[in-house]
Write a structure and sequence with these properties.
Elements lengths: L1 E2 L2 E2 L4 E3 L8 H9 L4 E3 L3 E2 H5 L3 H5 L10 E6 L3 H12 L5 E6 L4 H4 L11 H14 L4 E8 L7 H10 L4 E8 L11 H7 L6 E4 L5 H11 L3 E4 L8 H12 L8 H19 L1 H16 L5 H10 L3 H15 L1
Parallel strand pairs: 3-4, 3-11, 4-6, 5-6, 6-7, 7-8, 8-9, 9-10, 10-11
Antiparallel strand pairs: 1-2
Helix pairs in contact: 1-11, 4-6, 6-7, 7-8, 9-10, 11-12, 11-14, 12-13
């Protein structure tokens, strides 16, 4: 998949997820075979005002490239200014969020709210495209609700304004993450615009990825929740796309080796206190499907020292044999 001058091989993308797709997780996804990794969404105002936590989120490691960083905002001038700052960190792609359903984002006219204001959405894209030299993409949802399916028209407008690709999540804002994703709207967008279209929603297996590509005609797939606790999905999808064969799931030993490496990377990146808080959710996801997982998650959530958590991981691995 080619987004202007950025070649994405395989055409498999890690979705931007707040509190999830930090630097350590992006590197892990890349090592597993992800074609393009996306950072957590960044507020344009926080970036313009130099918020230290936001600036920290912009760190890019050479081994994770190509990388996309996502901005959200509602004012063309402010988001363009933020994009110029972001461009100094040299991401291969800058993405604009028009799909976040969270109330505190929507109430400010940002995220999914932009789907109800296509003129402003197009103005934002045009302002960012004019401000940076890298490709600018847009991530959107199917629509606001089932009565207002805006994705095809919004895609047409943002592409006319200069967007080099669009990602479509097949759920409405009102659905949040409930129900099933409607992939037919992804096909409708693909039939509307002449830039790459990335399909997002309900990809949890290699077969899901292939089915989305075949049913929608989209150029690439984006995986979000399917990668939580399962970075191996990128390896599995890449292999399946290339060979049509399914890989075996990771062994217990490999699973725990990755958990430990991920944990240590987050500790180095965020420090012990914050690192432990951030890793609790990841460890819970990694445990999903394992015997006695609920009890082990509870134990991890009660621990406050890294070495104690690592010892618990060793104990759990031994119990699993």
């Amino acid at each position: 998949m080619l987004i202007r001058n950025v070649n994405i091989v395989p055409p498999v993308v890690l979705a931007p997820m707040a509190g999830v797709t930090d630097l350590p997780f992006r590197i892990l996804a890349k090592e597993m075979g992800c074609g393009l990794v996306c950072g957590e969404m960044v507020s344009d105002k926080a970036l313009v005002y130099g918020n230290s936590r936001t600036v920290e989120m912009l760190r890019i490691a050479p081994e994770e490239r190509p990388v996309s960083i996502q901005l959200f905002g509602s004012d063309p001038e402010t988001i363009a200014k933020a994009a110029r700052i972001l461009a100094e960190y040299k991401p291969e792609i800058i993405d604009i969020n028009m799909g976040c359903p969270v109330p505190k984002v929507v109430k400010n006219g940002e995220g999914s709210a932009l789907m109800r204001d296509p003129e402003r959405a197009a103005a934002i894209v045009a302002a960012v495209v004019e401000s940076v030299s890298c490709p600018v993409t847009v991530k959107m949802r199917k629509g606001w609700d089932e009565e207002k399916i805006m994705a095809p028209e919004l895609a047409r407008r943002v592409v006319a304004a200069g967007a080099a690709a669009v990602t479509v999540h097949g759920r409405t804002r009102e659905q949040f993450y409930a129900g099933r994703a409607d992939w037919s709207v992804i096909r409708a967008v693909k039939e509307t615009v002449d830039v790459p279209v990335i399909g997002n929603g309900d990809i949890f297996t290699p077969e899901d990825a292939v089915r989305m590509l075949e049913e929608t005609g989209c150029d690439g797939v984006m995986i979000g929740r399917g990668a939580q606790g399962n970075p191996w999905i990128f390896r599995e999808v890449a292999h399946y796309l290339q060979t049509g064969e399914k890989l075996s799931p990771p062994s217990v030993a490999e699973r725990f080796a990755v958990i430990r490496r991920h944990f240590r990377a987050v500790l180095e990146y965020a420090g012990e206190d914050r690192g432990i808080r951030e890793m609790r959710k990841h460890i819970g996801w990694y445990f999903k499907g394992l015997p006695d997982a609920a009890r082990m998650r509870d134990r991890v959530n009660q621990l406050t020292e890294a070495e104690t958590i690592l010892s618990l991981l060793d104990e759990y691995e031994r119990d699993l044999g």
